[in-house]
Amino acid sequence: MRKLTVKPTTAVDASFLETLLGYNTRRAALTIISVFLNRMAQCELRPVEFSVLSLILHNPGITSRELCSHLNMLPPNLVGMITGLEKRALVDRMPHPSDGRALGLHLTPEGIELTQKAELTATALEQEASDRLTAAERKTLMRLLQKIYR
Amino acid sequence: MRKLTVKPTTAVDASFLETLLGYNTRRAALTIISVFLNRMAQCELRPVEFSVLSLILHNPGITSRELCSHLNMLPPNLVGMITGLEKRALVDRMPHPSDGRALGLHLTPEGIELTQKAELTATALEQEASDRLTAAERKTLMRLLQKIYR
DNA sequence: TATTGTTATACTCTATAACTATA
DNA sequence: TATAGTTATAGAGTATAACAATA
Prior knowledge:
2 copies of one chain form a homodimer. A two-stranded antiparallel sheet of chain A has the order 1-2.
């Protein structure tokens, strides 16, 4: 049996930081990402890999360039990830039908299966991470967040 | 004159990702951080450095350990940052009054001045980053985010 | 024995410059 | 000339193990 660690309740005054949207948003994001990492370990997917796979699933033939601009990533940082997903036989790079420079990205059958499983896992873990919010609050939160980044 | 780049409106379907709280929170956080980095360059402060200085300002004598547990950082990653802030003559490490192992952190007069200026800058840039939200929406957003990480 | 601060270190994430093939 | 994908590389962020001094 592991003894419970009694945390000394350090009464730190963070009242100013907590008036900042950036601080609150970042702290909440880190909390959710932490739950994500734990639960998504079974699929061996990190947050951005999951986003990439999900976008390919719903947009077969999407190019790296489109992924990058939609996920706010830089092309050099996507190359290795796609290569890794291809080595795991989840993704195929195929010639683009109309642009000889580009490559269309597609999921393999195994990729489709894993991504669909991962999407269910993601939906479930989100519920866990936001279990102190009502359904209405959750909906409001999403709408307000989208007003910031969209 | 620079020609405007006409962005090809890539109609990417991200409807599934946008149902996820983690995705929306992370995207919003990255958007605000980007504004932060631009505006806070004048103070030469990065987000975590700003948080550290603000916490020391409002909690003089706080220890590294307390900073770490409140900001969810690991002690080895704070050492270099504090050393850097000390070299810039913004922070002093002083003996802790009751615990010989610990060091109390304090701001120098220059540190106080810079941090106060930075707090004003932070409050202003937040307004800019969330200018599509009403005051009431902003308040609601903060309350809901805190329900996730607190 | 446990904790604070620290060093060393490794791994991931992010950013920039430059190359190639094609448009 | 501009763009898609790529390589190499540098810098920032984050993680663990281990040590000295103190509790």
